[in-house]
Amino acid sequence: MKFFVLEFDRSNERLLWTEFEQIESALADLSVKEAARQPQVEVVLLMGNSINDLKVTHGRYFMSPTELVQRMKDRLTADGLVKTG
Amino acid sequence: MAEFSKSALDRLGERLRSSERPAHDDRATYDAYRASFAPAVIEVERLCADAIPFLQGRTARLKTLESTIAKLRRGSYRLSQIQDVAGVRIAVDDLSGQEVALEILGAELSILRITDYRDRPQNGYRALHLIVESTFGPLVELQLRTEVQDIWANTCETLAGMLDLGIKYGGGPDWIREALGELSRNGQEGETVQKYRQVLLGQIGAQATESSSLPRTDELRREFDVLGDAFLESYTQEVRDLVWRAGQQRQTS
Asked: Which of A14, A57, B79, B143 has the greatest number of C-beta atoms within 10 Å?
């Protein structure tokens, strides 16, 4: 498992992330960034096997809702569950 | 958890709730409290991975101080009562996948409570939430979301970030609340159509060995296909319209 501290700026939807191998390092980084964050910036600690897992479960940091719904359409189309692409 | 008595935690929660800017010592205490959940959340994530390795979308998180303070201020919660300091989220394709995941996890985990928001949404939010025991003591909240449910939640969070954080908790402008409610209901209907279509296809598969001519089921399948396609088109368009309209409002405000 890897540990990711994400900084997401809601005002411009800009995302920065830092990857850690140890949770202790990630927690220390999270604490510093939480204390220093601007009000419009979200700082979160997520854990997963890879950044791709985060893209699936926390898609909004990486894609707009429009892109997320298009991703679903593409999957269903590829699976043959819908005709529209 | 032994070093955090319930009364000390609740006093910390009161200070976090009432202070404009948390004191350094309170931040440090919250950091230590949150860190005490790390072994539990890692354990539950690992148990989920072992139980359902075929699912790719699985992550864990520890609750941010911002989010904890927001929760304390929202209701009559005490810090010691908050059960989602540690959380695991699992993404599944659809309702059938959600049911399968629930059944498997139910056999593998020690589940204390299941809250089903699918048919009784909370401000439009739909998902399955489980409270799971860990061997380390702290409880972990496990969220199971289908793609449709997740898109709704992401849309809601995005609109909240664009316009008003209160949107996440059922606040914000009337038109947003109504549109999110409509999107949630459409998602529920669309997922139900998806589920019955899968049931039908399963039955067709089972009956195909018994009979080569099933005109009525073919007709039903076509009807479900049309309904499924229509749902997807309308859901996509609703999400696009909502985000576009929120963008317009952000520019003018």
From this structure: B79
